[in-house]
Each structure stands twice: as structure tokens, then as C-alpha cells.
Amino acid sequence: MSRLWEKGLPLDERVLRYTAGEDHVLDARLVDYDVQGSIAHAEMLNQQGLLSDDDCKAICTGLVELGQQHAAGDWQIELADEDVHTALETRLTKNIGDAGGRLHLGRSRNDQVLTALRLYLLDAVKAVKNSVHGLHESLAELEQRQGELTLPGYTHMQQAMPSTVAWWAGGFAEGFADALDGLDSSCRRMAKNPLGSAAGYGTPGLNLDRDATTRKLGFEVTQTPVTAVQLSRGKAEAGLLFELTLLMQDLGRLASDLLLFYTQEFGYIALADDVTTGSSIMPQKRNPDVLELVRGATATVQASLQECLLIVAKLPSGFQRDAQRIKAPLFRGIDLTIESVDIMAYLISRMEFQPENIRLDDGLYAAERAYALVASEGIPFRDAYRRVAAQYGGKQQPD
Hints:
- Its EC number is 4.3.2.1.
- InterPro entries: Argininosuccinate_lyase, Fumarase/histidase_N, Fumarate_lyase_CS, Fumarate_lyase_fam, Fumarate_lyase_N, L-Aspartase-like.
- The chain has about 400 residues and is mainly alpha-helical.
- It folds into three domains: about 15-105, Fumarase/aspartase (N-terminal domain) (Fumarase C, Chain B, domain 1), CATH 1.10.275.10; about 125-355, Fumarase C, Chain A, domain 2, CATH 1.20.200; about 360-390, no CATH class.
- Helix content is about 60%, strand content about 5%.
- It has helices spanning about 15-20, 25, 30-45, 55-70, 85-95, 110-145, 165-190, 210-215, 225-230, 235-260, 290-310, 325-350, 365-375, 380-390, and strands at about 150-155, 160-165, 190-195, 220, 270, 275-280, 285, 350-355.
- The strands form four sheets. The protein has a two-stranded antiparallel sheet. Strands 3-4 form a two-stranded parallel sheet.
- The longest helix has about 40 residues, at about 110-145.
- The relative contact order is 0.11.
């Protein structure tokens, strides 16, 4: 099989395996996006008089068919293909003849992969947001069911002031609403069209219309100058992973609360049987494995961000093959976030607080009593604070 960069020289099988890495597996999710980018490129070449009408039609029809066949499982990217770009172009040329070989005019795998990745990322953001909306809905339904139930609010892991299920759930809900805003902001770098920048220095001698592919593909702007494209590798990816890290940190803190609430010592919540697992040795136990794994997933997503940042750190300008290794942590972070948010939304939809087990310490209302003294007697708050503190043994606790 001839790869796009093939010059007729031999390639050691070990080198192929090492340089292709996981791309032949990872790129399966990019097939539709590479098809979109390739069709837009072909139509632009046709408009610029660089591709005949017949060839353009054959290429576009052939690409659509290949995309449909891949979705149906009729073919898959193989190690010999190396990546999605070779897989599509090789099969296209086999199916339609010489016209398939004319598609690569004016582009490189360097701008191809970025185009497909950014189109994919824009859809991935939509998928994450859809999951977050589902989690937000589960929290809202919990507030409707049990929002008025009083909970102790904690500081330093000690009961501190009165709260409610609505306040507890609402705090997390605001965090997830903030995550939606962050996801929207992460799209700024994804919405720049890299197509036509080729290997990073444009296509001297060809009259390409990069703005035409920007419009066809729905990007907001054409990324210029062409030398900026390779310098931007990893920025959109890291920007998204950063927002996913913040989202997962809130999700992990939510999981930590629920793990504490589920202990026998607390007994604040009941989890549905279908979201807990059994013990292999202790017949009486039901384990909140889902919550523990969600909590652990926060580390995986943060590590994905760090891996992405470290791969591109201090690289010189221009294309560097190191950037290929961004795909694995990027896809891992996206997939794990969606799975974690979805499973948490389901768990909360099946969860109930147990009011009979919620014990409120009388000290929860100490601050409220101090405020009442200020209002009724007009004394300074610190005086009221000391008087109330004396009622609880006179021992002042840190705030």
C-alpha cells in the first residue's frame, strides 16, 4: 500500500509500527471529518480551476460513499494505511482512478489532520455540553424532590451552619453551568480554519481560496498567517482539556460528598441497587464503585491535559511529529469526561436523601443566634459572638 509520503524506498516494519503508533485505531473517529474537509478542498480546487467538474464530482461522490461504508463497518483503517488520510485517499483512488490522486493538490497531512481534529472537537464540545445538561437536569430534579430537606453545612469536615439539599445541589449546579460557559469559550481556537496552510508554509504558485473552505466547513475565521497554524498545535486541544479538568474536579468533589454521605456513619443517602456493586467476600455490602471511579477519573483527565501541554512544550516552529501523540490523551480525556458525567447524572436521578438519618448539631445555629443578638440589642458582632460562644462552653473555634 502506498502512503501519501511514499517515495518508493523501503520502510522497516518496526519503523512503520512506531511512527504510525495508535493512529490507525484512533483515527476511526476522524473519518467523517476528513471526508468533510476533503470534499470542501475538492470543491475549492474546482472553483479555482485546479480540478475539473467531472473529477470533482467523482471525488466528492466517492468520499461520501467511503464514509458511509466505514460507518457500516465495511472497511477499517489498518496499520498499513498509517492514518485516516492515507486510508481514504488510497481507497478513493482505487475506486475512481486517477481523479483520486488529484485530491491532495495544495494540502498536506499536516493541515489535513488539524482540519479533521478541529471539526471533531467542535462536535465533541457539543457532546460534552449535552452530557452536562443531563447532569444539570438530574440535580434540578433532585432539588424539586427533596430541596427543602435540611442538611448540615460543613467546614473543616465539621458541622458548621444549616444548609439544605437545594443549596447543596445548587452549588454544584452553578459549577456545571460555569463549565458550559468554559466549554463555549474553548471553541475559539477550534474555529480557526487551518486548511490550505499545507506543511506550514502555504502553497506557493497555487491560487487557493482558503476563505472558501472556511465558509464551507463552518469555521469562523481562516487562520493566518500560514506559519501560525503549526505553532497552534495543541492549543485548542489543551484549552478543551483544561475546561474538562475543571468540570471533572467539580464532579470529583460531588462524588466525594456522596461517598461520605453513603457511609453507615452518615447514612444521608440511599443509592439504587443498580448503581452499586457487591462484595466478593462480604455478603452484606453494597459498594459505591461508580463514585470512587468518578473521583479517580479526575486524575486521568488532568493527566491528559498535562500530557498534551508537555508534548508541545518548547518545540521549535514548524511541523514536528511529536504533535501526533496529542490524540491519545485528547480522546481519552473527552471520552472519560462524557462517560463520567453521564453515569453521575444517572446515579443522582436514582438517589434519595434519608431525612431520618440526618442529625443536626445544635451548634449549627450558633451564628444565627449571634446575628439575632446584634439585631435585638444593637451590640457589636464580636460581643454577640463571645456571648454565644460561652453558651457552648466558652471555647472559641476557628472560623
